[in-house]
Design brief:
CATH topology of the largest domain: D-amino Acid Aminotransferase, Chain A, domain 2
Order of helices and strands: EEEHEEEHHEEEHHEEEHEEEEHE
Structural class: alpha+beta
Radius of gyration: 20 Å
Number of domains: 2
CATH class of the largest domain: Alpha Beta
Number of helices: 7
Largest sheet: 9 strands, antiparallel
CATH superfamily of the largest domain: D-amino Acid Aminotransferase, subunit A, domain 2
Helix content: 10-25%
Bound molecules: pyridoxal-5'-phosphate, 2-OXO-4-methylpentanoic acid
Length: 341
Amino acid sequence: MEKKNIDWENLGFAYLQTEKRYVSNFKDGKWDDGCLTEDANIVMNECAGVLQYAQTVFEGMKAYTTEDGHIVVFRPNLNAERMTDSAKRLEMPPFPAERFLDAVEQVVKANAAYVPPFGSGATLYIRPYMFGINPVIGVKPADEYQFRIFTTPVGPYFKGGVKPLTICVSDFDRAAPRGTGHIKAGLNYAMSLHAIVTAHANGFDENMYLDSATRTKVEETGGANFLFVTKDNKVVTPHSSTILPSVTRRSLMYVAEHYLGLEVEERDVYFDEVKDFAECGLCGTAAVISPVGKVVDHGREICFPSGMEKMGPITQKLYDTLTGIQMGHIEAPEGWIKVIE
Ligand code: PLP
Ligand code: COI
């Protein structure tokens, strides 16, 4: 299979239309057989549930080319599980997990020419999503849904690749206690747009959201979880029922403990202790691990000892080990890698 003629090394995190996408429709209480299509457009009624009341959830994962030329996907079963949780929270019929995995395989195979080559620094981003499609005017769940998966080749999420980021403590809240912060629903991102535009306008790369009940604890950013490293090399991540359970973060905590022999802690992280950490990183499918050099809280700067030039040493080890597992040159734990072809 011949790869597309794309400048892989210089891709950013942007949508580039690929050839095939997967579509399945839910009607009369059941999902149809689903198929691949070349049509990237969706036609729906003006009163569709997704357009009126934002009934939509999504996922994000990546396909990688390994050193020996296979195409693999990282832990898609966890994305299938999380999408089921997201769908249930928004009263949508979950797309069955085994069909989700089969659809991922079909769509990646069909777009194999767009999976960036090994060593290019780029990957194929996979975006499953579903939404209410029939007309809904009273506030209630839709009766009909569409599930789709498209793919797009991407480079680094943050401009500048792995240069440490400067983030600010947001005055806005991301997720309410007992709300929807733990699921991957479009509504969580719609309400974060003003906060991210404001952060960018003020010269910051991202927002650090605090817990909205007490505003004393670190939660996450708009699109990634936090990892911190203590001065004695413990890896710490916030525990909270209002953050998204990141597949990358869960994998990194395992890597820290079982591959690097580090102590790990998932616990409340108070903003007051951030100044005492040695390293900080943002982790997610899109972000991978993006190092944070500085956190700014209303003019007060917290500068991590790892500095603004490169990743801290533990963050670097975590990054190298995780990407080594994803790219196939470090042996993966059982079940982490799904070989597509
Ligand atoms: N937190 C938020 C709000 C996200 O949007 C994402 C991205 O998916 C993450 C965390 C990271 O999750 P994952 O590692 O599963 O991609
Ligand atoms: C991902 O990492 O897959 C996400 O969905 C985050 C988003 C901000 C691009």
